[in-house]
Each structure stands twice: as C-alpha cells, then as structure tokens.
Design brief:
A 6-stranded mixed β-sheet has the order 4-3-5-8-7-6, with helices on both faces. It is built from 27 helices and 8 strands. It is mainly alpha-helical. 45% of the residues are buried. Helices cover 60% and strands 4% of the residues. A hairpin with an 8-residue loop joins strand 1 and strand 2.
Length: 673
Amino acid sequence: MGVKSKKQRRPDRGTSRTTGGGSSGLEAPRLTRLDCGLAAGVGLLTILLYGWTCCPTIYWGDSSEFAVIGPTLDIAHPTGYPLFTLLAKLFSMLPVQEPALGVNLLSVTAGALACALVFLLCRLLGVPPLAAAGGALLLAVSEELWEQSSAAEVYSLHLALTAAVFLAALRFHHEPNRRGLFVTAALLGLSFTNHLTTLWTVPAVFWLLMTAPPIDGGQAWWKDLICWLRSAQVFLASVSLYLYLPIRSWMGVLFDHGQPGSLGNLLYHVTGRQFQYRMFVAADKGFLQEMEEFGRLVFEQFSPAFLALAAVGCMALWLRRRPLAVAVGLLAVANLLFDLNYHIPDKQGYYLPVYLVLVIWISEGAWVAAGMFRGKQRELTVIVTALFLGLGIHSGASNWPEVDKSDNRSLPEFTEEISRRLPEGGLLLVDDQFLIWSFNYMQLIEGRHTDRIVVNDYLLCLPWYIAHLKRRYPQLRVPAGIDDLVAARGEEVARARGWEIGDISQRYTQQIAAELIRANKPFRRCFLNFHDFEERKEWQGMKVVNQGLFFEIASPTPDGYDPPWDVDFPDPARYRKGEIHDRHHKHVAGTFSTACNRAGIAFIQAGRLKEAEAAFRRALEHDVDYAQVYLNLGVLYHSHLKDTAQRDQAWSRFLELAPDDPQAGSVRQALGR
C-alpha cells in the first residue's frame, strides 16, 4: 500500500510562481485585488480629467464624421471601424446634452481604460505598484493620448485594445491555459475591427504565446492542436464583426462609404487599399526626417528626465526578464517602423502604442533608479512619488491648455455662421471634409438648415458619393456626364502607381465639381468655401464674388436679396486668434477676422464708411496682429475719413507687422519716413 501524499495547496491569490518559457527563473507576479483596485483608481482619475476637458459637441477631424456615423449607424471611411461605430451608437444614446458629446465620451472612457490596463501591464512585468501607477498616470497626462481622448476618435480605443491584447498574452505567458488563449484571440480579433494597425501588435503577441510553457502543464499534442484551432475560431468570430459593413450596405444606408455590399468592395474598403499608395514609398519627407519628427513628438510627450529613465528601464527589463523584454521591444519596433513609413499628414495617434512601451520602460527605470535607496523603504517611496508627481504635474499643467476642449464649439458655430448666410435652396461646395460632416450633423442629427445643399468636392470622384448625393438631394441636378467621369477616374487609378493616384483624383474632382456647378447654376445660387481662396476672381472659368465667409458663383442677384456682409460673428472674447491654442479653433478665428476685413473693403466700395470702420475694428478683435487690416484702416482714414492721427497710428502698426510687404514702401512715403 503506497504512501498517500498530501494534496498540494494552491498558492494564495497574490503570491508568485516561477515563469517558464526561458525566463531568467525569476518569479512572475500575479495580479491581486489591490492591483485591480489601484487600476480602477487610475482609470477613475483619468476619466475625471478627460471628462473635464472633453469637447461638448462635434469636433474637427475624423471626430466630426464619427459624430454622424455613430448615431446613424452608417458606414465610415476605410477601414470601416465597425467596433467603434457600434460603441459610438451606444454612447450617443447616453442622457447628455447632444449625441456628439456621447460619442466623445466613448473616447474619454477608452483613454481611461487604456491607462488602467497599462498599470496592470506594468504590474505583470514586475514593476512595483507605486512606479506602475506613476507610469500609467504619466501616460494619462501625455499630450497625444489626452488629445485623442477629448473628442471622438479611434486611437484611444485602439490603445486600450492594444494594452488589453498584450495583457492577455502576458497572462497566458505566465499561466498558459485554454481560457487565456481564447481571451487573447477574442481581444485580438476585436482590436482588428477597430483599427488595422493591430497587425503590428501581432509579432509581440505571437512571441509571448510561442515562448510560453505547455498549455495546462502539458497534454497530448493533438489536444494542443485542437486548442489552437479553437482559438483561431474565436479570433475569426471576433473579426466577423466586419460583416456589419455589407449588412448595413444592403440595408441602403445614407452614407454607404465604399459600397461594401459586394465582396470585392468589402475587401477594398476593409484593407484600406485606397491609402496603400502612401505606404513604404518615398514622400516629401525622407526616413531621417520622419525620425526627427518622431523625436520631436516624443519630447513633447515626455521630458528628457523621463526619457532617460526609459533607457534605464529598457536595459533593466532586458537583464531581468529577457523574453518579456523582447515582447515589449517588438511592440514598439513593429509599430514604429510602420508609422515612419506611412505618409499621411496627421498620424500622431499612430504613435500611441510606442508611447505605451515608453511608459513601461519609464516605470521600470524609475524604480531601478530609486534602488540606490535599497533598504530605505520610506526614502524610496518619497523619491519615486516626488519624481512622478513633480514631473507629471508639470507635464499635465503644460498640456492642459493645448488639449482642453471643454469650451470649444468652433466647428458647429462656424458651420452655423455659414449656414445662416446662405439663401434657401443654395448649393455650397466645400473642400473641407470636417465642415461637410458638421453640416451633416446639423441637418441630419439636429434637423436644422435642411434646405441647403452642401457638397464636398474631395469626395466627388467616388461613385458611392455620387449615389449618395442623388438619394439625399433629389432636387440636385447631377448630369449623366459625371458618372462617366467617375468611371474614367476609376480606370486611370487602377492603372496608376504611387502618388500619381492623388494627382489623378484631384484632376477629375475639379472637372466633376465644375460640371455639377454648371448644371445647377441656372436653377439655384451656387457658392464655394475653399481654403485656398483669398482674392480670387474666377474659378473653373466662372466669375466668383467675395461674400465674406465664402464666394458666390456670379449670377444675377434676385430682387430683395441682401449679400450677407454682416460681421455679427460669435463673441470675439472666445475667438481671439492670439489667445487660442487649438489650431482648428484658431483657424476659425482667423476666418472670422478675414471675413470682417473683406466686409470692410466692401463697405468702403459701397460708401458705408462708418460700417467699414466698425468691420475693420471687429477684424482686429479676432486677430490683433492682422497686418492687412491696419493697412486698410489707414486707407480708410487717409482717403475717406481724413483723420491723419488715426491713419498714422494704423499704418505705423502695419509697418511693424509687415515691414517687407509690397505696400510698405508706399506707406512709408505717405508717412514721410
């Protein structure tokens, strides 16, 4: 009769065990209830911070599109973003002021979740709680994550899913079991349905899975195979969320972007093939310039002291847990190599996974640097706390003005100012995609100014957008020749390579826009709102007339129609260009100032001199350093109001601001200088 052995006692929650997979034999930490509580605390602090600075309404960039696509459950631009769209719909139903705020709160929540998960990641990598919490909060106050979390965008959710996938893979690496593998597969699939750059997380995840010990302590090879095949099924089930796109397309949605109802269109849309010409090609910036730009962005996120700690932490993690250090490094390198070779104007959000790795290294490095006080727990705690609090508070205070959108209503207010100056039934052609989505939000979500026809010229070369215009505006005349031009453009693009695609699209877009305006000009007033318009007199062979915030295609003026030359824009105290940090908000302030200046010129030509003076003064309220306004004010006082003192004051200021202006010589001569 054999001797009975005692039943092996399972380690208490919170104890450690030896990690496998070629680790250095050190004990791998396990998450405790205290860790989960601290992670929740980090998330709560972050969500309060982001919620306080969140944009209360529709915001610029792709955020404006998601503010419409979420509530309407339509189809977004490639790659479709089905997960974000569905979550945006849920958040848009929150009992808040307006749907756009609800969608913005999705990014707020995702950003806070990302910071909480980063804390747990640091803990599983062996970083003590104090340093892990400091690193997670440092990420929270970094400019880029804060920026991406203050309005509707996919990048904060992408970072949260990246952290979740890496955390699940790391837990599987420490404790390999079927459930952990299935959770990792499910999260990886969901991450793909939010952003395709999840592909660059796969090398790190694959490394963690492959270097883990045998599943469930070892079993028959065929059981392992079945387990891996089932995890593949779980992954495919998560990725199948992309079926949302063809299903919604078949339902006949208003914004059927890319028309993904067919298999060919679905693959084209989901893979983002229309943007692939921007990948791994020579662009206006070389690789070294992209590296310099990335370095500048990194220094904006973290101070040199933190970056020094990151270098220390990277080396320390390599010496302490080499397989885990490889995984962390793969996450950074794979994402960075792609980001540096993808040439788009605004790709700052793509760097967030790299910042996540930097924070892990910073947390590790902070604890290692404080190790000189080993054996002096109180001093150690004080040093680490003071380091993170001091530099973190400084970082947060300096970033707050840059990212605070709590009072930023510039996009809807700008849209409102344009809308109320358009006559009923007017056709407005705009080249700003953000502005077009703001008009869509105003008309479709808020139900205001629905009689205006607003068309985006950038999208006119795409067949789905032409179909959209025909469905949405039955009164709009779309000549048959436009369909032929769209088809011809598609054929040329299919044969083109690289940057030729953009040139071809721009050429066809101009032709299609001109055809659309000519077809509708006899039946309605037509207007243009283009960024590159200043003092242009014609467009595509048609004369244009300056109307302040936009230009009108010249046509006989109906009786009783008064050109909208009023300068009753929103309070200048909220739109002073020199006092604004947000570049979009600053653009609106500058546009209001320009419109006031144009109005002043028009009032002079109409002989309405006092109104001209008021318009110029209002222009300076929006932009006190607008040199051209001082020049025009001087002309008004010199040639019309005969006020020499005011003239001298205005022209002197003009010479201070623009000493090399072509008109500066004449002004100096008039002033006797």
